[in-house]
Amino acid sequence: MPELPEVETVSQGLAKVLVGKKISGFDCDTPKMLNYPLKKYAAIIRSLEVVAVKRRAKMIILELTSDWRILIHLKMTGQLVFRGKGECLIGGHTIDKSCEQLPNKFTHATFTFSDRSRLYFNDIRKFGWLRLHRQEELEKLFVKMALGPEPLTREFTPGKFAKSLLRRPKSKIKQFIMDARNVVGIGNIYADEVCFFSGLRPDRRVESLGQTEIKKIYQGIKKILTAAIAARGTTFSNYVNSNGEAGSYAKKLKVYQRYGRKCLRCGGEIKRQKVGGRTSSYCPTCQK
Ligand SMILES: [Zn+2]
């Protein structure tokens, strides 16, 4: 599943091409992806303009005029493809040749804009969704989802982070940072990377952490997510434009899925273990 850096990359890419566009049509062949019947959904958004594209946790928000918002979750295999005059932008899960054939057999929703450009929602397993909400509804929804702070904003402070750790002392650190109630946007890739950066085994209990270790995790979250956004994310996110740019953080990963290979810091062997049902890679020498 795309994590914060991948979803942020998609949002930033879409913002560049969608803001100011007016919706002239919408179609969807999978009712469960929507929270309104198709006819009503399409009637509400027709003639509305895209004002902004934002992100909250791992969701993309299309802000429309008249205070309507479309909340998009890519889930396991979702992909957004924008095609305009001479440009094609792909975000989310990789599906081969997405720009060549549109719509294709994985296309389940299509937004058409007044300039005839289109935004396609492709999804192999159909777990993704595009839900329509009023702005004020959205705020309540985020509260209901019990979403924790955005790690790259000022609401995520060292003090608040330390306090949140006290609430779940028995939790393993990797599970803790992957739990959106504590901090949003971190999945398996970046959780492994943060643990390596912090010198902590993914299964370390929160209650065993010292002040310096807590500080290191906090710094690791900020540093690694920021670097990953700058590199346009990892593997999952292919952002392709006329310049052919794609996400390149995969080359910078220090530990994720490197089990059986040499640790880049000490040369020892990277091991793996299951933490909360997820395969985790770590270095037994560098991580305590
Ligand atoms: Zn090592």
Automatic annotation (TrEMBL):
Q: Which domain of life is it from?
A: Bacteria
**By its UniProt entry, which PROSITE patterns does this protein fall under?**
FPG_CAT (PS51068), ZF_FPG_1 (PS01242), ZF_FPG_2 (PS51066)
Q: Name one GO molecular function term.
A: double-stranded DNA binding
Q: Which organism is it from?
A: candidate division WOR-1 bacterium RIFOXYC12_FULL_54_18
Q: Which family does it belong to?
A: Belongs to the FPG family.
- Limits of the FPG-type domain: 254-288
Reactions that this protein is recorded to catalyse: 2'-deoxyribonucleotide-(2'-deoxyribose 5'-phosphate)-2'-deoxyribonucleotide-DNA = a 3'-end 2'-deoxyribonucleotide-(2,3-dehydro-2,3-deoxyribose 5'-phosphate)-DNA + a 5'-end 5'-phospho-2'-deoxyribonucleoside-DNA + H(+); Hydrolysis of DNA containing ring-opened 7-methylguanine residues, releasing 2,6-diamino-4-hydroxy-5-(N-methyl)formamidopyrimidine
* Keywords annotated in UniProt: DNA damage, DNA repair, DNA-binding, Glycosidase, Hydrolase, Lyase, Metal-binding, Multifunctional enzyme, Zinc, Zinc-finger
What Gene Ontology terms for biological process does this UniProt record contain? base-excision repair
| Residue intervals of the Formamidopyrimidine-DNA glycosylase catalytic domain | 2-128
Asked if the Swiss-Prot or TrEMBL record annotates the protein with the keyword Phosphoprotein, the reply is no
User: Could you tell me which NCBIfam families the record lists for this protein?
Assistant: fpg (TIGR00577), PRK01103.1 (NF002211)
Subunit info? Answer: Monomer.
User: Where does the signal peptide begin and end?
Assistant: none
State the SUPFAM superfamilies in the record: Glucocorticoid receptor-like (DNA-binding domain), N-terminal domain of MutM-like DNA repair proteins, S13-like H2TH domain
An example Pfam family from this entry, by short name, is H2TH
Q: Which InterPro entries match?
A: DNA_glyclase_Znf_dom_DNA_BS (IPR015887), FPG_cat (IPR012319), FPG_Glyclase (IPR020629), FPG_N (IPR035937), H2TH_FPG (IPR015886), Ribosomal_uS13-like_H2TH (IPR010979), Znf_DNA_glyclase/AP_lyase (IPR000214), Znf_FPG/IleRS (IPR010663)
Q: What is this protein called?
A: DNA-formamidopyrimidine glycosylase
* Cofactor(s) of this protein: Zn(2+)
